[in-house]
Amino acid sequence: MLGILDGLDPEALARPVLPSGWSCAQLVHHLAVDVERFWFQRVLLGREVPLPDGWEIGTGVDPLALYRAESAETDGIIAATDAGAAPLWWPTFFGDFRLHDLTEIVLHVITETAVHAGHLDAARELLDGRQWMTFD
């Protein structure tokens, strides 16, 4: 995720280039709080953690630093938790959808992160022509 964005200045990170209207900074912020923090701290551990509403980034928040911090927190949680541990909280707004343990949560987060990495890769190419993982 972070390698795709390496070298982009803050203006480019904040500029929406895809029809959906989100910026790279907003997508990384989403991954930090709505993916890493939500799935591992809120769902798996049942912690009452702040979760923003929508795509807005708070004033003074560096989404890249936030993603690094949330990812490091996730790494610690995964290292300290049994793979078969069941979530301690589950959102009712998911209806019948359910992940049953840490292993399923990790696989879900890998999938969501991979999808968003593709989005970021396309956005980066539109911003400055750089492509991730090309061998020139």
Could you explain the architecture of this structure?
With 136 residues, this protein is mostly helical. It has one domain (2-128): Four Helix Bundle (Hemerythrin (Met), subunit A). Helix content is 55%, strand content 0%. It contains five helices and no strands. It has helices spanning 2-5, 10-14, 24-44, 63-80, 102-128. Helix 3 runs parallel beside helix 4 and helix 3 (24-44) packs antiparallel against helix 5. The longest helix is centred in the last third of the chain and has 27 residues, at 102-128.
Summarize the structure.
By secondary structure, this protein is mostly helical. Helices cover 55% and strands 0% of the residues.
Write the layout of secondary structure elements.
Elements: H1 2-5, H2 10-14, H3 24-44, H4 63-80, H5 102-128
Secondary-structure class: mainly alpha
Looking at the chains present, what oligomeric state does this protein adopt?
A: single chain
Count of beta strands: 0
Q: What's the architecture, going by CATH?
A: Up-down Bundle
Tally of individual helices: 5
Q: What brief labels describe this structure?
A:
mainly alpha, Four Helix Bundle (Hemerythrin (Met), subunit A)
